[in-house]
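Query structure, 239 tokens:
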């Protein structure tokens, strides 16, 4: 929740059903709300709200009032525990991702983590995943977008890239470092490097834009340790 003297301070609870204003501040090292932010990935603030069971995910861009209060119309689909992540760069400082636990009031029935798989669909789109997460190293993950069986080659830039990937660890919702490949094309492949800190299950959320609309494709992926990974493609050596 706090890092480098910065804290994510939720002001309002999150709503279920009808969207309501969700407001928060970033409290800085001097104890007051931060009002100076750099633009990163096209926005000054990226807010991610995920359910604790990782079946719900939203990536939105709040607006800031002059006093440093950020707000966005938001509703979550069901009651239960959620985690919010604010991703931002304070003026003159390093970029940060801060988390805060939120509770949407009401009865909570956690769902099991969706099964791991290499293909998922969202609307008319199919996204496939190649590559394996290996704990403790940067793993290359290639996501391929198709529509109606045809590769999509005219993805639109979204947040300064052709796709935006968020990776969260199942259980504690630890937020992973993800780097997009620099030499990106407009599809069908989008390449990321994902740093999984430990073995276990993760949920990957890909935001991509095509024909003017942003969609989110979600995958469950399991990270192995290097020793468990005996595939020929593994780059480590067995002697
Ligand atoms: Cu964002």
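Result returned for the query:
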């Amino acid at each position: 929740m706090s890092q480098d003297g910065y804290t994510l301070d939720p002001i309002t609870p999150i709503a279920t059903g009808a969207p309501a204003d969700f407001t928060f501040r970033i409290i800085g090292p001097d104890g007051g709300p931060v009002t100076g932010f750099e633009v990163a990935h096209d926005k000054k603030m990226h807010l991610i709200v995920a359910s604790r069971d990782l079946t719900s995910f939203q990536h939105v861009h709040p607006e800031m009032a002059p006093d440093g209060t950020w707000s966005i119309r938001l509703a979550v689909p069901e009651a239960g525990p959620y985690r919010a992540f604010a991703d931002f760069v304070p003026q003159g400082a390093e970029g940060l991702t801060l988390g805060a636990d939120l509770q949407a009031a009401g009865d909570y029935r956690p769902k099991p983590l969706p099964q791991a798989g290499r293909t998922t669909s969202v609307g008319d789109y199919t996204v496939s995943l190649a590559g394996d997460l290996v704990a403790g190293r940067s793993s290359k993950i290639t996501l391929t977008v198709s529509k109606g069986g045809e590769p999509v080659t005219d993805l639109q830039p979204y947040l300064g890239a052709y796709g935006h990937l968020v990776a969260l660890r199942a259980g504690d919702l630890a937020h992973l470092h993800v780097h997009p490949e620099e030499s990106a094309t407009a599809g069908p492949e989008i390449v990321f490097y994902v740093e999984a800190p430990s073995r276990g299950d993760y949920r990957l959320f890909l935001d991509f834009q095509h024909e003017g609309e942003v969609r989110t494709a979600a995958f469950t992926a399991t990270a192995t340790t290097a020793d468990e990974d005996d595939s020929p493609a593994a780059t480590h050596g067995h002697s």
